[in-house]
Amino acid sequence: MNKTFNYSTMKVGIIGGGQLGKIMAQKAKKMGFHVTILDPTLNCPAAQVSDKQIIGGFHDPEKLAQLVNENDVTTFELEHVDTSILKKMFDEGKNIYPSPYLIELIQDKYKQKELLDKKGIPVPAYKKVDTKACLESFGFPVIQKARKGGYDGKGVVLLKTKDDLSKAIEAESFIEELVDIQKEIAVMVARNIEGEISCYPVVEMLFDERVNICDIVIAPARIEESLRKEIEDISIKCIEALDGVGIFGVELFLTKDNKILVNEIAPRPHNSGHYTIESCLTSQFEQLIRAVTNLPLGSTKLISPSAMVNLLGEEGYNGEPVIEGIHEALEIPGLSFHFYGKKETSPFRKMGHITVLDESLEEALKKAQIAKEILKVKGSVKL
C-alpha cells in the first residue's frame, strides 16, 4: 500500500483529548505537523498543546466527519467511539488509522478474543454468556467480562463462588477461565501503512488491587530470556492478524507453568508504554505518529532499565488537583515527572506518571517505589 503525503503541510487529527492525546500532539508538533483534536471538554489536556480543538463528543457523526475532512490523517487516543461515519469515510479513501473496522472489532472484547483464537494465537479459555447458567459452565472461580465499554478494570468481575452470581455483569458479556498468573506482561507493537512492524521490549505490569489499575511498569520484564522472543513473536502475530496500522498495547499473561496467553489489545498508546518516553530511542507516541503518516518506524532500543509509576488521585479527595511531595521526589536521581493538566481530580483518576531510569533495574524500581510514597495528588475538596 503506497501513501504519499506532503509532510511540510501535514495535518493530523486526534480523536480524544486526554493525556494520551496530549503527548501524541506534542510529538506531532515536534515534527512540525498541524494538530487538531476532537474532545467534548474545553481546554482538555491535548487542547493545551494543539493548534485547534473541535468541541464535540466521540459519538457525534458531524464532528467526527469534520475532524477527518480537515486533516490529512486521523488517529485515535481512545477506542470508545462511534465507528459508523468513520467506516464510511475510510471506504471513501480517507486516511483513518487504525482502520475504524479494527476499532469496531476491538470495542467488542469477545469478538477480539474470537479472532485471535481463530488465528491460532493462545488465549485463555472463554465462552459467550447467553444465559445465567453459562456463568457456571466453567465452574468457579471464573472471570466475567463485559463485551463492550470496559477499561482500567471496569467491566470485569471475579466470581469466586455461586454466591457471587448476584454481582454478575448484566450487560452482554463472556466468561474466561481464571488463569494461574505468574506475571502480567505487555508489549507495544508498531506497524505502519507499508506493513513495516517493530516491537518494543517486554515489560512487567504490577496492579493496584483496589481498582485493578496498572500501578507500576518495569522495563524490561523480569523474565527468563528464553521467553522474550516467544512473547514478542506472539505480540507481532496479533497485530498482523488485525492488519493493524498504528501503535498497539498487547497485554498478556505469563502463567506459573510458563505458558503465554494474550489477554487483550489496545489499539492506541498504552499505559504500559509510558516508560518509552525517556527509556527508548523512540517513544510509543512518536512511533504512532510515524506509523499513521507512513514514515519509517524509529528504533525501539531500550536506552536504560526503568520503572514507571502511575500517579492516581488520592482517595477521599476531588476538585482542583493539589500535588504534594514534588520537590522531594525530584531530588531522586533519574526521575522524570509528568503531570497531565487535568482540571479535576477524583479517587484513582490517572493524573500523571513518573519514570525512573537507572543502570540497575532493581535500583530503578526501588527509587520509583520511594517516589510513589512521596508524591500524592490530592484535591481541593476533602470528601
UniProtKB/TrEMBL annotation:
EC number: 6.3.4.18
GO molecular function annotation: 5-(carboxyamino)imidazole ribonucleotide synthase activity; ATP binding; metal ion binding; phosphoribosylaminoimidazole carboxylase activity
Binding site for ATP: 109, 145, 176-179, 184, 263-264
Keywords carried by this UniProt record: ATP-binding, Decarboxylase, Ligase, Lyase, Nucleotide-binding, Purine biosynthesis
Cellular component, GO, one term: cytosol
Residue intervals of the ATP-grasp domain: 113-293
Function statement: Catalyzes the ATP-dependent conversion of 5-aminoimidazole ribonucleotide (AIR) and HCO(3)(-) to N5-carboxyaminoimidazole ribonucleotide (N5-CAIR).
NCBIfam families with a match to the protein in the record: PRK06019.1-5, purK
Identification of the protein by name: N5-carboxyaminoimidazole ribonucleotide synthase
Gene source species: Arcobacter acticola
Lineage of the species this protein comes from: Bacteria, Pseudomonadati, Campylobacterota, Epsilonproteobacteria, Campylobacterales
Gene encoding the protein: purK
